[in-house]
Prior knowledge:
The protein is of the alpha/beta class. The protein has helices at about 50-65, 80-85, 100-110; strands spanning about 1-15, 25-40, 70-75, 90, 115-120, 130. It is elongated and about 50 Å long.
Amino acid sequence: MFTVSRQFSFCYGHRLLNHNGKCAHPHGHNATATVVLRSEELDDTGMVLDFAELKNTIGFWIDENLDHRMVLHRRDPLVAVFQEMNEPMFLLDDNPTAENLAKLLFDKTAEFGFPVVSVKFGETGQCSAEYTH
Length: 133
């Protein structure tokens, strides 16, 4: 079995609804997302997948949808404020926790047809969540 991984770095802001700590307030993070793919066989060039393909698909999706955006729950009252200010946002049906962002990126990677096995989402250098299927 072969596995390969690619890490993506980006900045985003969020806050968590119904949270009793610091994350209840709008704040930002320098995030990392590590996408891990698995395959029993290599392609004709000897790869699971060319890393450039990941960069041009999921990396592009991250740049267009999450990088330098506020990631908020759809029902967050701040959504109306940011819409009025014409600020870029990405809205989720769930709280934008590291766990939910790991699952979001796992699902997006799978939508691109890649053999994704896990996504590890680092909210900070010390804190991360991982989603596997």
